[in-house]
Design brief:
It is a single chain. The strands form 10 sheets. The protein has a 6-stranded antiparallel beta sheet, with no helix packed on it. Strands 11, 12, 17, 18 and 19 form a 5-stranded antiparallel beta sheet that branches. The protein has 15 helices and 32 strands. It is α+β, with helices and mostly antiparallel strands and 726 residues long.
Length: 726
């Protein structure tokens, strides 16, 4: 093959394509698409992210096209416990890919043929990469990567060689931009990442702009800074330019360009079945929202679903959408919609199932510049990645220390724990880019330390993020050990306090009362068992990803949800009647956990209220749980709008029940509006984890629950990865 550099032909030793022997072990196959309709590829170097299930890639990783093995550079990022490769960057020369066409790659479990030595074609000596930031009210700031790299790009105190192989080399440069007088900026840092390929003139350049320096607790940084524009140049050539824009404190964005045109624009579509097999993600299937019938979605339909509905607020107004939240904003305005939460965002699930090149781009944007636009990215002093806890002694979330933006000027987007989407993880698996790994790491750090005793969604989604980071972060990333220690510490605490509990019904610990509820109850504390079910899934996710201690905890907590569908308990209530728990009533908005003494009083506004007193007992009988849940739902009162208690117990202390009140999966809320219980929204994913874990009675409960659950809300549903669940 022939490489060219600066118009001069350079003959290079051909990369030998060896025919794969008859017994070659194909671990997984992928079909990749050329997103360019005009650029056909021939003998072009590429770098792909390759993940492996435990035990699959034990000898190495070799890409193969049409039965021909390709020489490759394999940079192993993470190994599994058995030593097999869990994650690697694989760089090789792709023989051909038509414009707008596809190529099938087989991945073999063997060491690849060695590529010839790296041939420099990029003009290192002439590289003059500069990023110019133009504040609206001050002198221009310049980060001069070309000057720092020098003529030969030799590693130094400010230049790090991230990958150094015969096909691909990647450099990292850290810099603080300066003004014309050479004064360093107090707030902005720039990280350059340059990826060069053998025999290729064009270099892939990522310039990451961060307003994320560590600062004392009481430091007052500018809430935001206005910029007239940002420009990335190479000598006299402008590679990227846009503006004006505003950068909030504690945000980051990335500009991604090629110095001499992109070598490729390939969609890194995964083999979803393989991701499921390797426990990287759950198993989903399509389900029609309208009919409940299962149907495939085409890529075009997936893209149409996430076309942002013409909402101008969510569409990037600039080429790369820097500092714009994109699809996250549309789905998650101030506290979360439902498309973005649950185990993984709806757009990621739909793409994994059905594809869609536009959705692929939106995932990368959401996990990257979208996530970076949240005003809370702080790089702690001395830390190798993003962490908001102390690098030497992590103690949990410290984000409040850094968030000093007044409410009046905050963007209309506030991330919290209860509605935290998974950010960074899927894009990092797809691309292996360190930028996405940093986002995954940051969000894990932000969510680390959430109180597990709530057994609610704030813990479920936070724990998921930390587990995923511990599972896939590179072996040489010190934060991997911090995340692993955090997961293990949480599991140890839970094991000590939950597995040794003598409670017959495994409801949340009574040391913490937390639920999502809008009504005041009269004589019980409560939990949101639909959120508790998400904790069951999150513990199952930890068990899947190498934390065996999570298995017993998953099973212990799953038994609580299973009991709502399978319990044969009976309870003779204070009204003299005998009750049982009807499975149709499982998953109300709130469920009684403990019975308390109560006192009716009139507050200063003349409103009758109830004050909970000493706990009488925990509720360890499902029928009794049903009765006291109904008592409280039927007599609950609002704390706002039309507040006040409207009922009273009789002379024997028995509260009245509504014949048409809570029960059969419905409860009254507000002006007697009837809401169906959340079998699908709540119990579903927890029951998936229970069935996969073969928890006693899980399959029986699953079948009862699925008969009661309504149609899919988003057109897909998670299903167990075991036989016999249908």
């Amino acid at each position: 093959m022939r490489y060219t550099s600066m118009g001069v032909a350079l003959q290079v030793i051909a990369l030998i394509s060896l025919a794969a022997p008859a017994g070659a072990q194909v671990v997984v196959s992928n079909e990749y698409s050329n997103l360019s309709a005009t650029q056909a590829l021939a003998d072009v170097p590429v770098t792909f992210s390759r993940i492996g299930a435990e035990g699959d890639f034990t000898k190495g990783i070799t890409p193969s096209v049409a039965g021909k093995k390709l020489p490759a550079q394999v940079d192993v990022l993470r190994r599994a416990a058995d030593g097999s490769i869990r994650h690697a960057l694989v760089s090789f020369v792709l023989p051909a890919l038509p414009a707008g066409g596809k190529v099938k790659l087989d991945w073999l479990n063997e060491a690849p043929p060695a590529p010839p030595a790296f041939v420099w074609a990029a003009d290192r000596a002439g590289a003059a990469l500069k990023l110019t930031l133009s504040p609206a009210d001050g002198p221009a700031l310049v980060s001069d990567a070309g000057r720092i790299l020098g003529r030969d790009w030799a590693p130094s105190a400010r230049v790090r060689l991230l990958h150094d192989g015969p096909v691909m080399k990647e450099y990292e440069v850290r810099d603080i931009p300066v003004d014309a007088a050479g004064t360093p900026d107090k707030y902005i840092e720039v990280i350059w990442r340059l990826r060069a390929f053998t025999g290729q003139k064009s270099v892939r350049v990522a310039a990451i702009v961060e307003s994320s320096k560590d600062r004392p607790a009481n430091a007052r940084y500018p809430v935001y800074r206005k910029f007239a524009g940002v420009k990335l140049t190479d000598g006299g050539r402008t590679l990227y330019e846009e503006g004006p824009y505003i950068q909030y404190d504690q945000t980051r964005y990335r500009v991604l360009v090629w110095t001499d045109g992109p070598l490729e624009d390939i969609e890194r579509r995964p083999n979803y079945d393989y991701w499921v097999k390797g426990r990287f993600v759950p198993k989903y299937r399509w389900a029609s929202k309208a009919t409940g019938q299962y149907a495939n979605m085409t890529p075009a339909k997936v893209d149409a679903t996430f076309d942002e509905k013409g909402d101008a607020r969510s569409k990037p107004t600039r080429k790369q959408g820097i500092l714009e939240n994109g699809i996250i904003f549309w789905h998650m305005p101030r506290g979360g919609s439902r498309w973005d939460i649950n185990p993984y965002p709806a757009w990621s699930v739909a793409y994994l199932l059905g594809g869609g090149s536009e959705t692929y781009r939106r995932i990368l944007h959401a996990d990257g510049n979208g996530g970076g636009a949240f005003y809370m990215h702080i790089r702690h002093k001395g830390a190798p990645g993003y962490d908001v806890f102390s690098a030497d002694a992590p103690k949990g979330c410290r984000i409040d220390r850094y968030t000093n933006i007044p409410d009046a000027v905050r963007p209309n987007l506030e991330p919290d724990y209860a509605h935290a989407p998974s950010l960074g993880y899927v894009s990092y698996l797809l691309t292996g880019d360190k930028f996405y790994g940093e986002e995954l790491s940051f969000w894990a750090s932000y969510q680390m330390g959430q109180n597990w005793k709530q057994m609610a969604r704030s813990f479920a989604w936070s724990f998921r993020q930390v587990v995923d980071a511990a599972f896939i972060q590179p072996d040489d990333n010190p934060l991997k050990n911090a995340f692993t220690a955090g997961v293990e510490r949480t599991l140890n605490q839970m094991s000590q306090q939950l597995l040794k509990s003598t409670r017959r019904v495994h409801s949340p610990p009574d040391t913490v009362f937390n639920c999502s509820g809008r009504m005041d109850w009269i004589n019980c504390t409560r939990c949101s068992d639909w959120m508790y079910s998400w904790v069951v899934w999150s513990l199952g996710n930890a068990a899947d990803k190498g934390f065996p201690q999570a298995k017993a905890l998953r099973d212990w907590s799953a038994e609580y949800i299973i009991g709502f569908y399978t319990s044969k308990d009976t309870f003779k209530a204070p009204d003299g009647k005998v009750y049982t728990y009807d499975p149709r009533d499982a998953m109300p908005y709130s469920t009684a956990v403990a019975l308390h003494e109560c006192e009716i009083y009139t507050d200063q506004r003349g409103i009758r209220r109830v004050r909970l007193g000493k706990k009488i007992k925990d509720l360890d009988n499902y029928a009794e749980i049903w009765y006291w849940t109904k008592v409280n739902e039927d007599n609950a009162f609002e704390g706002y709008k039309t507040p006040g208690l409207k009922t009273s117990p009789d002379a024997n202390g028995v509260w009245p029940l509504k014949e048409d009140g809570w029960g059969h999966g419905m409860y009254n809320w507000g002006k007697q509006q009837r809401w169906w219980a959340w079998h699908r929204y709540g119990a579903w994913v927890g029951m998936v984890a229970a069935v996969e874990g073969n928890v006693p009675n899980a399959l029986e409960a699953w079948k009862k629950m699925t008969e009661l659950a309504g149609p899919s809300e988003y057109g897909y549903e998670m299903v167990p990865r075991v036989e016999g669940w249908e």
